Amino acid sequence: MHIFLWVILAVVVVGAVVAIFGWDRYRGSRKSAGETSRPTDEVFIDPTTGQRMRVWYNPATGRREYHPE
Predict the structure, then answer these.
(1) What is the model's pTM?
(2) What are the mean pLDDT values of the chain's consecutive 10-residue runs (69 residues total)?
(3) Residue 32, strand partner residues
């Protein structure tokens, strides 16, 4: 019974540390800093405005951005 409680406590502590500090805290520092967003070949129609949107990808941050075409 005591082992079970220790396991539960360990899971709660690890979860709290991950929630506070995050897994990807240093994600941007591993990639080169000089890269900027570039357009991709992906295009979609925005359902709210009906505009064609081009997907841009930023390798420095790993994020996808959407710009009107």
Answers:
(1) 0.43
(2) 88 82 59 69 85 86 82
(3) none
